[in-house]
């Protein structure tokens, strides 16, 4: 296989893994600690590949797939991921060169923004306010960000992909 095909498989495989890992069931007590995997993986690819691979259209398609897999309001996650990817691509040149601790704080801000967008969507859908434990997930995602970033970067460099 040539490097371009391996790179495309690695990209598509990581996004498919993110969608599938979103479906992993957790006990009720651990459910608030479940990170939003598609957002984390799309953030990684938005920062590393930029406009070459990640676009708002891709974020919308991944979000629609996540909506269908998760069984939530159609377009909910698509809109969330589009907002997240838009902000990440807009500030990509700054975020890429932040030290890891600052990048983690930026990811936390993006994930909290994602929760606010979700809260607005669900409020318009007529749902009640979520419990306070609902806000734990962005902090878990931000805590996992350095490990996910370093793991994905190491695997990408081992495959010698651009």
From TrEMBL:
UniProt keyword Mitochondrion, yes or no: no
Entry keyword set: Cell inner membrane, Cell membrane, Cell shape, Membrane, Transmembrane, Transmembrane helix
GO BP: regulation of cell shape
Membrane topology term: Multi-pass membrane protein
TM annotation in the entry: 54-74, 95-112, 132-152
Pfam family of the protein (one): MreD
Location in the cell: Cell inner membrane; Cell membrane
NCBIfam families cross-referenced by the UniProt entry: shape_MreD
Family to which this protein belongs: Belongs to the MreD family.
Known role: Involved in formation of the rod shape of the cell. May also contribute to regulation of formation of penicillin-binding proteins.
The protein, known as: Rod shape-determining protein MreD
Source organism of this protein record: Dyella marensis
């Amino acid at each position: 296989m040539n490097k371009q095909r391996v790179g495309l498989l690695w990209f598509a495989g990581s996004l498919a893994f993110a969608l599938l890992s979103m479906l992993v069931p957790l006990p009720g007590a651990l459910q608030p600690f479940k990170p939003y995997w598609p957002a984390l993986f799309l953030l990684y690819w938005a920062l590393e590949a930029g406009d070459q691979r990640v676009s708002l259209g891709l974020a919308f398609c991944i979000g629609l797939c996540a909506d269908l897999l998760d069984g939530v309001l159609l377009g909910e996650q698509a809109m969330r991921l589009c907002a997240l990817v838009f902000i990440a691509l807009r500030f990509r040149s700054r975020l890429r060169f932040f030290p890891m601790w600052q990048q983690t704080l930026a990811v936390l801000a993006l994930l909290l923004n994602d929760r606010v967008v979700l809260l607005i969507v669900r409020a318009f859908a007529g749902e009640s306010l979520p419990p306070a434990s609902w806000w734990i997930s962005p902090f878990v995602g931000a805590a996992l960000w350095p490990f996910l970033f370093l793991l994905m970067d190491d695997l990408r460099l081992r495959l010698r992909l651009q």
